[in-house]
Specification:
By secondary structure, this protein is an alpha/beta fold. The protein folds into two domains: 3-188, Aldehyde Dehydrogenase, Chain A, domain 1 (3-Layer(aba) Sandwich), CATH 3.40.605.10; 190-317, 3-Layer(aba) Sandwich (Aldehyde Dehydrogenase, Chain A, domain 2). It is built from twelve helices and eleven strands. It has helices at 3-18, 34-51, 57-70, 73-80, 106-114, 130-141, 168-177, 201-212, 234-240, 250-265, 299-308, 345-351, and strands at 92-96, 118-122, 149-151, 161-165, 183-186, 190-194, 222-228, 270-272, 277-280, 290-296, 313-317. The strands form two sheets. A six-stranded mixed beta sheet has the order 8-9-10-7-6-11, sandwiched between helices. The protein is globular and about 60 Å long. 33% of the residues are buried. Keywords: NADP. It comes from Aestuariibaculum suncheonense. One of its GO terms (molecular function) is acyl-CoA dehydrogenase activity.
């Protein structure tokens, strides 16, 4: 199977996913093997939602829309153009996936297969329904993928390289356990926003997407604000208001109530609006329904601080702050070439 065959197969997978990426699911007659897979995937969506209360229909469809937008011929060609992929010696690559947001390990899955390797997937129990079904569809549109994709719930064995994602604690275990294999090991990271007080209403409303999408569970979600001293929070809270229905979701509301009680009993200073709390704290990882903030003296000093602590940071949302910044509202819309932890996984897979 050559690279173009693999690209064409993922374009067809994108066409299939696109049917499920809007508020209304619509079956398209032009999609290959739809009679076999369409109704089954609708059922998998239902199972994913029932199994994990964070996986609401809105968040699943948002994730699917992101992937349908990425799996186009134009974007796949743009992504892969810088690399020489045709000369790959196929290896077995294990992927240990997180389960914090729907299909969070899908980029690693695509990357292993598109570079010509075989994939051995160990999924999180929190996100186990969608990917195996999409993998089966991929084998139908391109039969040469059969035998190249394996899922396991057991200990991963018989592999040549590994991409593993987990908490800081599990990452240390991964680093020890996989020390003799080529690896990419990812641990906890969080995203931050740098505000100056000059943001427009639209920019702050876009920031609300970075904060609340997926209930803030993703490493690309903004969990920390850096603010100039004397910052007025009125415009910020006004821009957050469109997300107030989020408090109607029981799992979110439970976390909000619990964390609010902890803060009040501990007599911490915090501001809140009924569905979001903001608290001054130097940490990057904030609890659900909470965003931390920290004041800065100068943008130059802040830039130095974030460079020193870059291994704790996934994304920096800002306007005119740094060359690697992400626009307000764009953290959960990464392109195929926006690599987690800024580690080029295609380059890694071509080197093993």
């Amino acid at each position: 199977m050559n690279l173009q065959q693999r690209i064409n197969a993922f374009v067809k997978l994108g066409d299939f996913i696109r049917q499920f990426s809007n508020d209304t699911i619509e079956k398209q007659n032009t999609v290959e093997f739809n009679d076999i897979f369409f109704d089954g995937f609708k059922h998998q969506l239902k199972l994913a939602e029932e199994h994990n209360g964070w996986f609401t229909p809105e968040n699943i469809s948002f994730a699917l829309k992101g992937w349908s937008d990425s799996l186009t011929l134009e974007k796949l060609n743009t992504w892969l153009k810088p690399y020489n992929i045709e000369t790959v010696n196929p290896k077995q690559v294990a992927i240990i996936m997180a389960g914090n947001i729907p299909l969070v390990g899908f980029h690693d899955f695509i990357t292993v297969l598109i570079t010509g390797h075989k994939v051995l997937v160990k999924q999180s129990s929190n996100d186990k329904h969608l990917l195996p079904y999409l993998a089966k569809y991929l084998e139908f549109v391109e039969p040469e993928f059969k035998g190249l994709i394996t899922f396991t719930e057991d200990k991963v064995e018989n592999f040549d390289a590994v991409i593993a994602t987990g908490s800081n604690n599990t990452a240390r275990y991964f680093e020890y356990y996989f020390k003799d294999k080529p690896s990419i090991i990812r641990n906890n990271r969080n995203s931050v926003a740098v505000l100056t007080g000059q943001e427009t209403e639209e920019e702050l409303e876009n920031l609300s997407e970075d904060i609340f999408r997926y209930y803030g569970l993703g490493c690309r979600n903004v969990s920390k604000l850096f603010l100039p001293k004397g910052y007025n929070f009125d415009a910020f809270f006004n821009a957050m208001y469109s997300w107030h229905p989020i408090i109607e979701k029981a799992k979110y509301a439970n976390n909000y109530d619990y964390n609010k009680a902890v803060y009040l009993m501990s007599e911490f200073d915090m501001l809140e609006n009924g569905f979001l709390m903001i608290k001054e704290d130097q940490s990057y990882a904030s609890p659900i329904a909470t965003v931390f903030y920290e004041y800065y003296d100068s943008l130059d000093q802040l830039k130095e601080k974030l460079e020193v602590e870059e291994k704790q940071i996934q994304c920096i949302v800002a306007k005119g702050f740094s060359e690697n910044e992400i626009a307000f509202g764009a953290t959960q819309k990464p392109e195929l070439w926006d690599y987690a932890d800024s580690v080029d996984s295609v380059e890694f897979l071509l080197s093993i």
